[in-house]
Amino acid sequence: MDKLRRKEINKIDYISICSPNYLHDSHIRVALRNGAHAICENPLVLNPWNIDALQEIERETGKKIYTILQLRLHLAIQQLKRKIEEGPKGKVYNVDLKDITCRGKWYFISWKGDIHKSGGVATNIGVHFFDMIGWIFGEFKGVELEINHPGKAGGKLYFENANVNWFLSVDENDLPVVALVSQKRTFRKINIEGQELEFSEGFTDLHTLSYNKEKVLVSKMLEEHSDCKRPEKNLINIVFNETYRYHHWCQTPIYQGCSSEQVNQK
């Protein structure tokens, strides 16, 4: 890239970053400093303060950073969003979100099992669902972390229009009977006010759709939200990429744990 930039031939306009999570920050910097826009998979970074530095590099280089938000292209999720938008204004829904995506021993041997490289289950897997929930139910209000283990995490999230109980796991022992009977290794479900939406299927082509030249799904640029309000208190160290706003919710990294009493109410 550096050689092409200096010779000003075959200029690269966009770099797609699909590397392990802990390399995203450095790879984004390489792209921007070599005159290319960056399209990066979620999570964008592992430490929220890295967003500030990337924002500076955006201004310096004039190049932009985008992130893939593939769950917004899932048909069932789009239908749910429309249903909520057409529902009672100001209503706060009670929501249960469960995602169990079984992984073998390889998961914990790979970089995904190293919390310093992946950010843990809540960051590596949960960031996609957190964006989805925020996209549907509006502004983030607060969070509680109740379960925090290498293979699973769970707690409560509070949004403008929803109180969400969430649970994420890569442990096959957490699969419900209905999944075991069907011999499925994945189970995803949203329960809203007693109405269930099972969306285990339909994930295969979402990345292809995201990168389609006519359906590129990216977040808004950093500069558009540089003046956004950030919570003064923190609970979980997670990045929400819905609008490139970030919430460093915890004074310690997620793998060090947080008590459920440390609730950030904005």
Q: Any overview of this molecule?
A:
- By secondary structure, the protein is an alpha/beta fold.
- The chain folds into 2 domains: 2-69 and 208-242, Rossmann fold, CATH 3.40.50.720; 75-203, 2-Layer Sandwich (Dihydrodipicolinate Reductase, domain 2).
- The chain is 29% helix and 23% strand.
- The protein is built from 10 helices and 11 strands.
- The chain has a 6-stranded mixed beta sheet with strand order 5-6-7-4-8-9, with helices on one face.
- A hairpin with a 2-residue loop joins strand 8 and strand 9.
- The longest helix has 13 residues, at 49-61.
- The termini are far apart.
What is the string of SSEs from the N terminus onward?
HEHEHEHEHHHHEEEHEEHEE
What's the overall geometry? Answer: globular
CATH top-level class of the largest domain: Alpha Beta
CATH fold-level topology of the largest domain: Dihydrodipicolinate Reductase, domain 2
- What is the annotated CATH architecture of the largest domain? 2-Layer Sandwich
Instruction: Name the beta content range.
Output: 15-25%
Major sheet strand order: 5-6-7-4-8-9
Tally of discrete structural domains: 2
What's the number of helices?
Answer: 10
Mean pLDDT: 77
Quote the distance from N terminus to C terminus: 43 Å
Binned, the helix content reads: 25-40%
Q: Decide which structural class fits the backbone.
A: alpha/beta
* Number of strand elements: 11
Please name the fourth-level CATH homologous superfamily of the largest domain: Dihydrodipicolinate Reductase, domain 2
Question: Low-confidence parts lasting 5 or more residues at pLDDT below 50?
Answer: 213-266
Largest sheet: 6 strands, mixed
Q: Using only CA atoms, what is the Rg?
A: 19 Å
